[in-house]
TrEMBL record:
Catalytic activity: adenosine(1518)/adenosine(1519) in 16S rRNA + 4 S-adenosyl-L-methionine = N(6)-dimethyladenosine(1518)/N(6)-dimethyladenosine(1519) in 16S rRNA + 4 S-adenosyl-L-homocysteine + 4 H(+)
Similarity section: Belongs to the class I-like SAM-binding methyltransferase superfamily. rRNA adenine N(6)-methyltransferase family. RsmA subfamily.
Subcellular location(s) per record: Cytoplasm
NCBIfam families: ksgA
Source superkingdom: Bacteria
Alphabetic keyword roster: Cytoplasm, Methyltransferase, RNA-binding, rRNA processing, S-adenosyl-L-methionine, Transferase
Protein name per the record: Ribosomal RNA small subunit methyltransferase A
Enzyme class: transferase
Annotated binding of S-adenosyl-L-methionine, by residue: 16, 18, 43, 64, 89, 109
Known EC number: 2.1.1.182
Role: Specifically dimethylates two adjacent adenosines (A1518 and A1519) in the loop of a conserved hairpin near the 3'-end of 16S rRNA in the 30S particle. May play a critical role in biogenesis of 30S subunits.
Ranges where the Ribosomal RNA adenine methylase transferase N-terminal domain occurs: 23-194
Organism: Lysobacter hankyongensis
Length: 265
């Protein structure tokens, strides 16, 4: 497909440009733009997803850190629709301010070196986001969507699944990108849960409990949670203190955190 311009890829910015039309079409089908949707894209790069989305939808806002891409992106976007470009590190973008009370749909083929920070940044602003479709390292998507008992079930699985419905959609081979990454990729959908469904009393305490539980995943909960929650409270949450974090459901972590004492201020 023609992107209208081609800049050399910058490794430091995790640039692997998607070129397989079939993969782009599958992403569009998964995203399924509807009239009235508002889209924000992280890292438009050379426009692989941006331009087809503009063709379908007419307008979109994109956040790109690479200054060298801004001018060619703006110029090449003209025939496709109205592109609003924000030149920034996505980590410095306040999604709540960007939404201005109108939650948007977030999409992106993310720079893999920043996957986790971007995911947690999005979680911090979940109320401003309707849903997310991201291309990520397959290994990260596997961890995000993992179920209890799986070898890759961990902090990322619990933190994301507590706040969002997570669906792993499809795998993408390295050859779909230029230059090809060393690993397989996958597309994932995250839909933030309404706050009443999340049921977490104190997000900071929840994060502390989950971090401590998986910090030493081979230890029993009684030992791993020593600093944040004693055995009586684990029992009060209806959980055997001899179990390990990897065996707990997300709802168990929520109950446990809601019973844990508040951390010092
Ligand atoms: N969306 C394009 C595609 O699918 O071909 C590019 C994807 S490439 C994997 C990641 C993009 O994110 C690049 O355009 C890169 O410049 C941009 N990027 C990297 N770090 C960023 C950051 N901190 N904030 C915003 N964009 C960033």
């Amino acid at each position: 497909m023609t992107l209208g311009f081609r800049e050399p890829a910058k490794k430091s910015l995790g640039q692997h440009f998607l070129h397989e039309r079939g993969v782009i079409d599958k992403m569009l089908l998964a995203i399924s733009p509807k009239p009235g949707d508002r889209f924000v894209e992280i890292g438009p790069g050379q426009g692989a997803l941006t331009f087809p989305l503009l063709d379908r939808h007419g307008a979109l806002t994109a956040i790109e850190f690479d200054r060298d891409l801004l001018e060619p992106l703006t110029a090449a976007s003209k025939p496709h629709g109205a592109l609003t470009l924000i030149h920034s590190d996505v980590m410095n973008v306040d999604f709540t301010a960007l939404a201005a009370g109108e939650p948007f749909r977030l999409v992106g083929n993310l720079p893999y070196n920043l996957s986790s920070p971007i995911l947690f940044h999005a979680l911090d602003h979940a109320a401003s986001i309707r849903d997310m479709h991201f291309m990520l390292q397959k290994e990260v998507v596997d961890r995000m969507a993992a179920a209890p008992g799986s070898k890759v079930y961990g902090r990322l699985s619990v933190m994301l699944q507590a706040y969002c419905m997570v669906t792993s959609l499809f795998k993408v081979p390295p050859g779909a990108f230029r230059p090809p990454p060393k690993v397989d990729s996958a597309v994932v959908r995250l839909v933030p849960r309404p706050p009443e469904q999340v049921g977490i009393d104190d997000p900071r305490r929840f994060a502390d409990v989950v971090r401590a539980a998986f910090g030493q995943r081979r230890k029993t909960l009684r030992n791993a949670l020593g600093g944040v929650c004693d055995a009586d409270r684990i029992l009060a949450a209806g959980i055997d203190p001899q179990t390990r974090a990897e065996q707990l459901e997300v709802a168990d972590f929520v109950r446990l955190a809601n019973l844990a004492p508040a951390p010092p201020v």
